[in-house]
From TrEMBL:
PANTHER family the UniProt entry points to: TRANSPORT ATP-BINDING PROTEIN
InterPro entries according to UniProt: AAA+_ATPase, ABC_transp_ATP-bind, ABC_transporter-like_ATP-bd, ABC_transporter-like_CS, Oligopep_ABC_C, P-loop_NTPase
UniProt key word Iron-sulfur: no
GO process annotations (BP): peptide transport; transmembrane transport
Organism whose genome encodes this protein: Mediterraneibacter gnavus (strain CC55_001C)
Transmembrane segments: none
Pfam families tied to this protein: ABC_tran (PF00005), oligo_HPY (PF08352)
SMART domains for this protein: AAA
UniProt protein name: ABC transporter domain-containing protein
PROSITE patterns: ABC_TRANSPORTER_1, ABC_TRANSPORTER_2
ABC transporter domain location: 4-234, 254-486
An example Gene Ontology molecular-function term: ATP binding
Highest rank taxon of the organism: Bacteria
Keyword line: ATP-binding, Nucleotide-binding, Transport
Lineage of the organism: Bacteria, Bacillati, Bacillota, Clostridia, Lachnospirales
Length: 570
């Protein structure tokens, strides 16, 4: 049965711009349809027009638009789609009461059941909480529960996992797939990530500049693309998944020794206690090297970056850097003054540091714009006139103006589409080849980290649980958490995606309070021993590899011969 039939759908904004033009497709009952394309391709606009939630001044026309059954939508940013002033339970029950005939008690029972179905532990307690009290993954699960509240025949999921870390992303996608299988609900998944679409969908539409340029099965799009744009998209995705040969020098640029940060949490009735955002850790970054840093949200990655840049002081330990450190922030839009011209944004660091005359500053800005391949940009523009990729290039140029030895990239490319992401990674690599610049590259995207870094560290609840050569860690993870992270990666190949096992669907709690004296990962670890719940593991080093896990302690592996070569114990 066809749930949705669309022919020549055109969306026109005032000023004659057509973000969607002559879009035609259909959705069968129970089908998983993917819509791929770069940012600005018109994917979201087309879906919003079908939901009827575009502004009144937008003109929508179509030759044929047939819809059968009910539909619901899951938006990209759950934080923006949930009311921050209304408890989760009330938002769910309001939706149920607005669309179904039932009593308030029945609506509350239905809401609690829905939260349980989407994998939220202790749903009764969660219903009493506000959205800001939930993690990103839990907020997205609540958004899914609201979409399911009226038993829709069709769900439109618009970039539902873009801002989520890799394990939560896998759990959300597996949850959507489980819902589709059990309820025979059709899902239209909008994403710029071909790995996400490969893991979910059997049929794909590829959009470019408001038009559908190709349609086919996931296998056809991946193995035998026809349209030049689809080929480019597929090639860029493959390139992102490749691991180029990487070399490093022996000179150390950054060295941290026991660097840590704790915060005091005050209690209204009880004693104040200290929470370790970053447990004491040590690592090095070499000249011309990229050190990747991965881990779930809340693992301490950004706190570490803020200590290295002097934004917050460390509570213990120290670090030394042979040169200046600069940082590219996660939200470039928020790091720029929207009223400043590009010229003023770029000159500002030089003015603050009193570097050169006006003419010399203009020359330096022009050099940096050339380095990031934006020499033709009109510097009188504001950042509002730029695309996301262009803003990132301006952020790179601004960071390089003062000749840093180390550049920290904090989730800088996480929201970019695959084409922009590939171009920015190539730009960073080219700059590194020319200048021997070092990078600390923080990301929850494991594919990107594998693509760009020589060495990497893995963080979990403030602790660096594993570090070593990137290629070796991906080939053979030693820490159970690293293994869990890599298992959650989405393969680009649709055949591999089809064989991938489903992850546990229950949301994971923050266990930091449960394991003050033990390993923070112990409650989630299938290899946990009695000692793991009583004390924190030390750091065990074997050549380039360093791991925090009792599985590698001498007490566990018994007496080792002098020529013993340690391998993964999991």
């Amino acid at each position: 049965m066809k749930l949705l039939e669309v022919e020549n759908l055109t969306v026109q904004y005032p000023g004659s711009t057509n973000p969607a033009c002559k879009v035609s497709f259909q959705v069968e009952s129970g089908e998983l349809l993917g819509i791929a394309g770069a940012s600005g391709a018109g994917k979201s606009t087309a879906m919003l027009s079908l939901m009827g939630i575009l502004p009144e001044q937008v003109q929508i026309t179509s030759e044929k638009l047939k819809q059968h059954g009910t539909k619901a939508m899951i938006f990209q940013d759950a934080s923006a789609s949930l009311n921050p002033l209304v408890r989760v339970g009330k938002q769910l029950t309001e939706t149920i009461l607005a669309h179904q005939r039932c009593t308030g008690k029945e609506a509350r029972e239905r809401a609690e059941t829905l939260l349980d179905e989407v994998g939220i532990q202790d749903p009764g307690q969660r219903m009493k909480q506000y959205p800001f009290e939930l993690s990103g993954g839990m907020k997205q699960r609540v958004a899914i529960a609201i979409a399911l509240a009226c038993n829709p025949d069709l769900i439109i999921a618009d970039e539902p996992t873009t801002a989520l870390d890799v394990t939560v992303q896998r759990q959300i996608l597996d949850l959507l797939k489980k819902i589709a299988e059990e309820t025979h609900t059709a899902i239209v998944l909008v994403s710029h990530d071909l790995g996400v679409i490969a893991s979910m969908c059997s049929r794909v539409l590829v959009m470019k500049e408001g038009r559908i340029v190709e349609e086919g099965s996931m296998e056809q799009i991946f193995y035998e693309p026809v349209h030049p744009y689809t080929k480019k998209l597929s090639d860029m995705a493959r390139k992102l998944y490749q691991v180029p040969e990487k070399k490093r020098t022996g000179e150390v640029i950054l060295r941290t020794q026991g660097l840590g940060r704790s915060f005091v949490k005050n209690s209204l009735f009880g004693k104040s206690r200290s929470l370790e955002a970053v447990e004491p850790l040590s690592f090095e970054i070499h000249k011309g090297e990229t050190f990747g840093l991965v881990g779930e949200s809340g693992s301490g990655k950004t706190t570490l970056a803020r200590m290295l840049t002097g934004i917050i002081p460390p509570s213990c330990g120290s670090f030394s850097c042979e040169g200046k450190i600069q940082m590219i922030f996660q939200e470039t839009s928020a790091s720029f003054d929207p009223e400043f011209s590009l010229e003023r944004i770029l000159e500002e660091p030089l003015v603050i540091q009193k570097k050169g005359s006006k003419k010399e500053r203009e020359k330096r800005v022009a050099e940096m714009l050339g380095l990031v391949q934006m020499e033709k940009i009109d510097v009188r523009k504001t950042t509002a006139a730029l695309s996301g990729g262009q803003r990132q290039r301006i952020a790179v140029a601004r960071a390089l103006l003062l000749n840093p030895e180390l550049l920290i990239c904090d989730e800088s490319f996480s929201s970019q589409d695959i084409l922009t992401q590939s171009q920015l990674l190539e730009l960073l690599e080219e700059i590194q080849r020319k200048t021997q610049l070092s990078y600390l590259f923080i990301s929850h995207d494991l594919q990107v980290v594998r693509r760009i870094s020589q060495r990497m560290g893995v963080m979990y609840l403030g602790s660096m649980v594993e570090q070593g050569l990137t290629a070796e860690i991906y080939e053979e993870p030693w820490h159970p958490y690293t293994k869990e992270l890599l298992r959650a990666m989405l393969p680009l190949d649709p055949k591999k995606a089809a064989r991938q096992k489903r992850l546990i669907l229950k949301e994971t709690r923050n266990h930091s309070q449960d394991t003050e004296n033990g390993c923070p990962y112990a409650p989630r670890c299938r290899y946990a021993m009695e000692c793991c719940h009583k004390e924190k593991p030390g750091s065990y080093r074997f050549g380039e590899r360093e791991v925090r896990c009792f599985l590698y302690s001498e007490a566990h592996t018994k007496k080792r011969a002098k020529d013993y070569h340690m391998t993964s114990q999991i």
